[in-house]
Write a structure and sequence with these properties.
about 0% helix; mainly beta; about 50% strand; four-stranded antiparallel beta sheet; single chain
Amino acid sequence: QVQLVESGGGLVQAGGSLRLSCAASGRTFRSYVMGWFRQAPGKERELVAAISRSGGSTSYADSVKGRFTISRDNAKNTVYLQMNSLKPEDTAVYYCAADPKLLTSPSSWGQGTQVTVSS
């Protein structure tokens, strides 16, 4: 497993931008598929974006396509989520997750970072 620590959350107005970062411990970061999940109050946790081990393949939830970009820097053991054109419905706790194979049941989770978008 890897230890994950998120940062970069906060309060932003609708239409604004934020960049989340997730720093991972260990020497095997490049062996993990990485993803960002979010959970809004009263809702289930959902996968927002995922990135392959090399960074060459990404996928997004329909609700964030064209607005969010996931990326990773394997030299820095860090994965990012650039969020643009934020909407109030993006308000949630965002979690970084990692797994050696698939993100259907990640083996490692961060503690979460709050993102609040005001209208």
